[in-house]
Amino acid sequence: MNKTKNQKAWLLVLPVFALVAFSAIIPLMTVVNYSVQDIFGIDDRVFVGKEWYQEILRDEVLHGAFKRQLIFSALVLLIEIPLGIAVALSLPRRGFGSSLAITLVAIPLLVPWNVVGTVWQVFARTDIGLGGSLLLSFGIDYNYTSNPFDAWITVLIMDIWHWTSLVVLLCFARLQSIPNVYYQAARIDGASLWSIFRFIQLPKMKEVLLLAVLLRFIDSFLIYTEPFVLTGGGPGNATTFLSQYLTQLAVGQFDLGPAAAFSIIYFLIILLFSWLFFTALTSQQEEKLEKTREN
Question: What is the CATH number that goes with domain 63-288?
Answer without folding.
Answer: 1.10.3720.10
